[in-house]
Amino acid sequence: xxxxxxxxxxxxxxxxxxxxxxxxxxxxxxxxxxxxxxxxxxxxxxxxxxxxxxxxxxxxxxxxxxxxxxxxxxxxxxxxxxxxxxxxxxxxxxxxxxxxxxxxxxxxxxxxxxxxxxxxxxxxxxxxxxxxxxxxxxxxxxxxxxxxxxxxxxxxxxxxxxxxxxxxxxxxxxxxxxxxxxxxxxxxxxxxxxxxxxxxxxxxxxxxxxxxxxxxxxxxxxxxxxxxxxxxxxxxxxxxxxxxxxxxxxxxxxxxxxxxxxxxxxxxxxxxxxxxxxxxxxxxxxxxxxxxxxxxxxxxxxxxxxxxxxxxxxxxxxxxxxxxxxxxxxxxxxxxxxxxxxxxxxxxxxxxxxxxxxxxxxxxxxxxxxxxxxxxxxxxxxxxxxxxxxxxxxxxxxxxxxxxxxxxxxxxxxxxxxxxxxxxxxxxxxxxxxxxxxxxxxxxxxxxxxxxxxxxxxxxxxxxxxxxxxxxxxxx
Length: 476
What we know:
Layout: E1 2-9, E2 12-20, H1 25-38, H2 51-58, H3 60-83, E3 87-99, E4 103-112, E5 125-128, H4 135-148, E6 151-154, E7 164-173, E8 176-189, H5 199-203, E9 211-217, E10 227-241, H6 247-253, H7 259-293, H8 300-322, H9 326-333, H10 337-364, H11 371-385, H12 389-398, H13 402-421, E11 423-426, H14 436-451, H15 454-472
Parallel strand pairs: 5-11
Antiparallel strand pairs: 1-2, 2-4, 3-4, 6-10, 7-8, 7-10, 9-10
Helix pairs in contact: 1-3, 2-3, 4-7, 6-7, 7-13, 7-14, 8-10, 8-15, 10-13, 11-12, 13-14
């Protein structure tokens, strides 16, 4: 077999292949055998029809077509290996010549991984937020814990801000009660803003049995966006009582004996969280600077496929699970479809560039992934997927995704190498020294977010939260 490679552009090549006919013998034999099993010829046992009879009855062309289809993948793979290119996706094959008994010639155009020159990244310098835990941060954290242990007690008085009221709601539009405009036994904390606009003013000052009417724009349901007359009846009033902030509270809410120990632990946990956030921020900003330095051509077909995949995953998986469609999602996000398409394309370009350049770094730096690193990564991915480690591992093996996980860890290690060479300062001008463990974990997550499009996931989650705020409000 003879082959030649022609570079069409930095991300696409054309392979020209010529195969002497004798190299098709094995495929021709296989073609005759396959056709033999499929046909019946009077006078011959099934599977015992001579080749000359098959040629006469069904045509030599049918045999040649079967043989060529069988042989092409093998010859294409040999040509790819000989040319030392890394193909992406399926080739476009064109048979240019087929002379029975003499020659098979074909061309194959295919996208390839571009040759990337790793830039000098030693001069990268980024600034990240300083790790600072204030007394106010600690107090807020303890107060949130205190809120979780709040109790409610019925009271016989008028409702006031902060009270939990139980209400029945009825909404009318143009004097007619909506089919989905009634909700009974709804619990609402006055001042929380979680229900209809105007309800705080309506229920404040009412005792159990009290009733009021107010006008509000409906945020959901069959008459979404319309003005409605809403009648609210208070059926119960309860006061929220927070536990005293003392040692008894610390013992009830945690494993600590004193409030001071609880606060010290809160400060430590907040510092750890901010350090991890700082490491993630460093990874993201260093990666952005690396991508600015590197020239990375993008195969157009690969880009179109990636854009299509990201849109499909968002529409049919993330949004579908949230009960949203793309139109509703764009409305919540305040984006036009053109803006969404442009952003998706930009994120896809960044994801492909990130994968290409970090894969090249893995190769040039000869980075390997050991079993411990792979196991730790698998455990984290399992946790984020909501599956047990055993279930996740089984799914990975069954779907032949182990190389994908290895690639994710390897790219994280490659990014960690770049961060280690970069200068990272905090907003106070202090040099940030990231711990190796923090650096590797944050790097793997950063790379996943960029390559797999988790930015879209975050946007979808924000949209779900906004939608949930509306859903918590009665359809009225």
